[in-house]
Amino acid sequence: MLIFLGILCSYFLGSIPTAYIFGKFLKGIDIRQHGSGNVGATNAFRILGKGVGIVVLLIDILKGALAVIVVGNIFDFNQVFLRLLLGVVVVIGHNWTIFLQFKGGKGIATSLGVLIGLAVQFEPLRLVLIVTLLAWSIPFLISGYVSLSSMIAALVLPVAMLLTKQSWELLLLGFVFCVFIFIRHIPNIKRLLAGQERPVNFPFRRNF
Q1: What phi and psi, each to the nearest 5 degrees, are found at residue 71?
Q2: How far apart are CA 171 and CA 189, in angstroms?
Q3: Read out DSSP for 156-170?
Q4: 137-145 long-range Cβ contacts below 8 angstroms, 24+ apart
Q5: How far, in Å, CA of 141 to CA of 201, rounded?
Q6: Per-residue confidence of the chain (208 residues) as pLDDT tens digits?
Q7: Over the Cα atoms of the chain, what is R_g?
Q8: 10 Å Cβ neighbour count for 109?
Q9: Using an 8 Å Cβ cutoff, are 164 and 128 in contact?
Q10: In Å, how far from its chain's centre is CA 43?
Q11: How does DSSP assign 119-140, residue by residue?
Q12: Where are the domains of the chain?
């Protein structure tokens, strides 16, 4: 029963559609009808502004961390597998939220929050977190493509876990997150191949 309640709390925590809520309250719009149509930080950044986009990003990250740390502590989940289960469920909630007919974001920020939460709990995972952040940041600064950077980081995550000899539970988590991210980025892959994906404009890159 405790496991079921923990899973339920994590799902509903992840299901909070942050970008949608900010769009409705600040601009009176349904963010799903604008930009990429995605309920995530990148679309919020473009449609609602940089400040709001950053807030949405931080809240979505926080959702993942809270699920692993706070929900895990409330239900006294001491086993690694149970913490990982909460992490997977909170990302599922974000990606397929019950509040928007099971259509949500792409899970990048919330997955990062889960990794941060796990790194707080399990020290050996901190190096994996750093490597994954670098695997996202470097391609992003070079290309400006959030989607491409996210998929590269998704591929690096399970590899980094394997090379640092993490437990099989963590390896499974890395693989699951990688699959989730690629599934959610299928439209982006099509746009990248067609040369239609929009990069983030940097002041130092005039060709954008």
Answers
A1: -60, -40
A2: 25
A3: HHHHHHHHTT--HHH
A4: 140/200, 141/202, 143/199, 144/199, 144/200, 144/201, 144/202, 144/205, 144/208, 145/192, 145/197, 145/199, 145/200
A5: 10
A6: 889 999 999 999 999 999 999 999 999 999 999 988 889 898 999 899 999 999 999 999 999 999 999 999 999 988 889 999 999 999 999 999 999 999 889 999 999 999 999 999 888 899 999 999 999 999 999 998 999 999 999 999 999 999 999 999 999 999 999 999 999 999 999 999 999 888 877 554 544 4
A7: 17
A8: 25
A9: yes
A10: 13
A11: HHH-GGGHHHHHHHHHHHHHHH
A12: 2-194
Encoded tokens for 46: 């473009």
HEC sequence for 49-69: CHHHHHHHHHHHHHHHHHHHH
Apex 11 CA angle, 169 and 160, nearest 5: 30
Identity of residue 112:
L
- Tell me which residue has tokens 């941060």: 116
One-letter amino acid for residue 185 of the chain: H
